[in-house]
Design brief:
Elements: H1 18-47, H2 55-72
Helix pairs in contact: 1-2
Amino acid sequence: MTDFTSDTPIHKVHKTPRTEFYVYFTIIFLAALPLAAISWMLSMIKQRQWSSRGPVARAITQARIITPMIFAA
């Protein structure tokens, strides 16, 4: 029989604060937007056709990738 009175297992649930997450998301999105616009324009010049994803979609994708990495660290 195991005695858990002195060394009880603690289940810690880590919840990300929503406000802090959205603040970081916004900062990263605003930083990625000019770079995404430049990347989008260069790809349009190279391919000579309209890209299906615009600069805003590209910046949102980058922010969605980078922001959780900050909170996972």
